[in-house]
Sequence to fold (325 residues):
Amino acid sequence: MNEFVEAVMDVSDSEETITYTRIDNGLLSKIPEENRSKIERHLLWILRDHHIRFFRMSSFPYKDLTDYLESAGRGLFFAFCPYCNRTYLLSAGTSKARVNKNPSVCVYCADMGPYWKFTSSMTKVGKLTSLLDHFEARGQGKKRELGRVILEQSLVMIATVIEVFLRDIYAITLNMRYVKPGTSLVRRFYDDSRNDFANIGKAKAAFKKDLDIDLNKMLSKESRVLLEVLMAKRNTIVHNNGFVDETFIRQTGSSAVKVRIRKLGQAPELKEQVPVSRDELDLYLRMAEELFLVLGRKFRKEFENIVIDKLIAFVEEHEVTRRYV
Fold:
């Protein structure tokens, strides 16, 4: 495995990219003292060797790692991809426009990370729902029909983004915890749970059983109920052209869900179209944001602890016998 990658990477303004961790004094301060100096020496040796070969420099003008980080005009990142389970260093050129931005895509598997997928997809939902401004709320004919299509597809997108986010967090957490470095079973975890995450009850059960994460305790009662309503409506729109069937009646049969549906001013019967409103979409978006924040915060805390361990292991694995700078 190549331990160092020189690349011009796509960058993201979002802080929600996780594959790449910028190596700076903030990160180094989190490393135990007994490992810190070794890591700094090893990183500096890699940088010197790489710059001499890649840039054909006759000498390496930086006296230590801090000098390099402050003076080189390049961003140095430690990459740990939770999808392919690879670790490597990446040096990316910086400019005034890019100096505070992080790379976003793994150079090996091209996955973007669950946070960036979520936020980017929700931005698309916002752009889609903005099209509703071009249609009259009580329009007739084609205007009303097109407005209904936008509402349905916006709802389906929100539900799908949540489904993918849950499945991503589930699969990569299993991968981080239980699979040896350099090996990935994310696709296997995806395949084994592919249909489970379209059913929110099965998704909650999988998180509880395999990760010891109780989504019911993490979410407010209102968000739990809205999540059930959202997934039931999404499944009806996708699988039954948006018309209420026995499956929808069964999935929304709990008293709490029935109460929530009535509060939305909806009590659909068999063979009727599933009601969808713009105000309702706003409720789903707020619920999705709550899920993103509480589950994302828990995952990030575990991930950041693992990154430190991965960096230490990376240095130990690639430690050279020659004299350090």
Observations:
- Residues 126 and 318 are 46 Å apart (CA to CA).
- The first helix runs from residue 25 to 28.
